[in-house]
Specification:
318 residues, globular, binds NADP nicotinamide-adenine-dinucleotide phosphate, binds 2-acetamido-2-deoxy-beta-D-glucopyranose
Length: 318
């Protein structure tokens, strides 16, 4: 009996320890305010994007919610204004699954807004399928749409320097790979339906985010614009809404024990957006509000450059 109690106590103790060390998550401690500054948060209507937008609005920013659904975004705008007491929150239509929509968003934004100080590339999907442009959905939304968006807004970011680009990646990038042959032939990161396939494509798209930030940092040297990629933690959001039932059942026990809330999920984004004097770390990957070294494949100069060029071609920028 006492051995059983001991084992139970040890288990609980271990859980508390692991939770404290790895799960609870660091907090953004920056006191920076952003009055007079303009911020874009893509996918700011729910999950991590919404809690990020609320925090930035509280700090005084003019917040542009770049979202695909008018109803969902307008409901979020009302909520963010109420939570933050700042009425400088506006919705602008952006569907990252459409290159045409990205171009028209950028055009409207550049015409209507005077500044851009922070671009938070937050939107993401976990869903297989194709876009209207014939591209694989996760490649298009998680990577290419943001690639085009960032490029179309770069001049404005430079004009408002010091400014920052923050890219939401994921720990999943560790399992990703970039298959250029597959991209060229199929406009997809990998094809075929097999168990775990969707997760692998998601991972590939998140590896693209890390590589892009790496390449962009180089291209932006000396401009006063810096960029960061990050893993927000394992956060309870709507991200897995379109995953398979099997995947949901398998991940349930893990999420029940270890998953954090969206406010915690916004902390590393806020750190990258606001923390003073992290400019020398431009191009790096952050987690738990601190930089973290990535595997060689996620800082491979040649692959990052090639992905940049392939992406330019897909967007018609080259
Ligand atoms: N949650 C986690 O544990 C976790 C872990 C690692 C990385 N991340 C990353 O964190 C970021 C935020 O995800 P989340 O967990 O907060 O997920 P979420 O709750 O599903 O929010 C995703 C947001 O992206 C938007 N979005 C999706 N497709 C879009 C499109 N085509 N055009 C414009 N917006 C689009 C969604 O809009 P709708 O509401 O209209 O669908 C929503 O606002 C993602 O990049 C994700 O990969 C999350
Ligand atoms: C994804 O899930 C949402 C919410 O459950 C649903 O409304 C939407 O139709 C799904 N999309 C696809 C393409 O399955
Ligand atoms: C993030 O990285 C660069 C800019 O830092 C951008 O071109 C790329 O498309 C972005 N990707 C996402 C999805 O965040």
């Amino acid at each position: 009996m006492s051995a059983l109690l001991l084992a139970l106590a040890a288990t609980v103790g271990l859980y508390v320890l692991v939770y404290r060390l790895c799960v609870r998550g660091a907090r953004c401690t920056s006191q920076t305010t952003v009055h007079g500054k303009t911020v874009i948060v893509t996918g700011g209507n729910t999950g991590i994007g919404k809690t990020t937008a609320i925090d930035l609005a509280r700090r005084g920013a003019r917040v542009i919610l770049a979202c695909r659904s008018k109803e969902r975004a307008e409901a979020a705008v009302r909520e963010i204004i109420q939570e933050s007491g700042n009425n400088q929150v506006v919705y602008m239509q952006l569907d990252l699954a459409s290159l045409k929509s990205v171009r028209s968003f950028a055009e409207t934004f550049l015409k209507q807004e005077a500044r851009l100080d922070l671009l938070i590339n937050n939107a993401g999907v976990y869903l297989d399928g194709r876009t209207e442009d014939g591209l694989q959905m996760m490649f298009a939304v998680n990577h290419l749409g943001h690639f085009l968006l960032t490029n179309l807004l770069l001049e404005r970011l430079k004009a408002c320097a010091p400014s920052r680009v923050v890219n939401l990646s994921s720990v999943a990038h560790n399992w990703g790979k970039i298959d250029f042959d597959c991209l060229n032939t199929h406009k997809a990161l990998r094809i075929g339906t097999y168990l775990g396939g969707v997760f692998m494509i998601y991972s590939d798209s998140k590896l693209c985010n890390v590589l892009f930030t790496h390449e962009l940092a180089k291209r932006l040297q000396g401009t006063g614009v810096t960029c960061y990629s990050l893993h927000p933690g394992s956060i309870k959001t709507e991200l897995l809404r379109n995953s398979s039932t099997l995947f949901k059942v398998l991940t349930k026990p893990i999420t029940a024990l270890f998953v954090k809330d969206p406010v915690t999920g916004a902390q590393t984004t806020l750190h990258c957006a606001l923390q003073e004097s992290i400019e020398p770390l431009s191009g790096q990957y952050f987690t738990n509000c601190a930089p973290m070294k990535v595997k060689p494949k996620a800082r491979d100069d040649a692959v990052a450059k090639k992905l940049w060029e392939v992406s330019e071609k897909f967007c018609g920028l080259a």
